[in-house]
Amino acid sequence: MPPPPPVLVEEHVEEILLRFSPQHPAFLFRAALVCKRWCRLISSPGFRRRYREFHRTPPMLAILVNAEVDSDGSSVSRFVPGRPAFCLPLLESRRWRVLDARHGRVLTRRVGREPAAEAAGVELQVCDPITMERRMVPIPSPRVLCLAAAVLCSSTPDAGACDHLDCHRGPFLVVFVGCLHLDRRTFIYTFSSETAAWNGPIFTQLSISATPPRMTSKCVGNALYFGFPMSDTILKYDLQSGHISGIEFPTECSFNQSNVFITTEGGGLGIASVHHYALHTWSRDDAVGWMQTRAIEIQSLLPVDTLLGSAEPRVAGFADRFGMVFLLVNNVLYLVHLSTYKVIKLFRGIGISINSVVPYMNFYTPALGASCTNEGPSAGGSSA
């Protein structure tokens, strides 16, 4: 009878598991079911932290789609999995519209009837899609209109205080851009989950259209940017000083809803837009303003018949850290890699008209506490 195979040294096992790609979270889940020792290792907080530090860039787990139902025009948010066997039922609803996603959290706004939210004056909620936790956030005042909002880790204003690899369970901020029902003056409130209170308002003299933009916010350094193309204004909010300033759009992007913020190769603020059937990108330099960096004919990216009989394509979102733009053509969503111009067809809106896309990015590692102690393997949730 041959001798049993030697037991793998735990340090060696960990080094192997650390190299499992975060693009395929199911691999770690399967490894955790091999034996109790591996399960305890993969489920431990120390491994999860080292796994994030090793890979640094979280995968795009899902695409959150804001759309309108063709039959009645009501708003709906839809979930499109970016990875097999990953599901976000918490965000599948006609009641909430996705506004932002950052640092492992998703910010949504109520757009339909929900009696519990209506009674509490709740307009916003912050979700952790992996742990299925959510927190209702009341609006600052019943007299205000929500123009835009963003969610972020509460350590963001302090540069270098957090690497944002594993902070989705910690305190957060919600930055709310609004105006009064009868007043065009724009202001910002900031909500802290630690104090459960709003700070503000901070008023600005900038004149902003009351039409909510399709653009999601962009965080660069210690500043948040909100785009209002119908007012030809980008609102810059300094998270440390609380100062608000305005920036004009590039001329081709003014009064055009087909704009999204992007990250430039140098990590700065950029914009992607469709103009005359071409995908344009710009980068901004504080000294010289906007500079165009690309102009790509869309017909060179897609099959010839794709554009026949369709309205002009438009950009619907941007996947930060991946350099990928979501392009909407005739209600079909495509993913365009700006570095290689590779195009991936994602899906067609059936029964809905797609408005905007918000990618959700986070690490997804298994938490199988019961499997580590019981005799038989059993599935569990995720520790994120």
TrEMBL record:
Residues 97-367 form the F-box protein AT5G49610-like beta-propeller domain. Residues 10-49 form the F-box domain. It holds the Pfam family F-box. InterPro entries: AT5G49610-like_b-prop, F-box-like_dom_sf, F-box_dom. PANTHER family: F-BOX DOMAIN-CONTAINING PROTEIN (PTHR32133:SF297), OS07G0120400 PROTEIN (PTHR32133). This is F-box domain-containing protein. It comes from Sorghum bicolor (Sorghum).
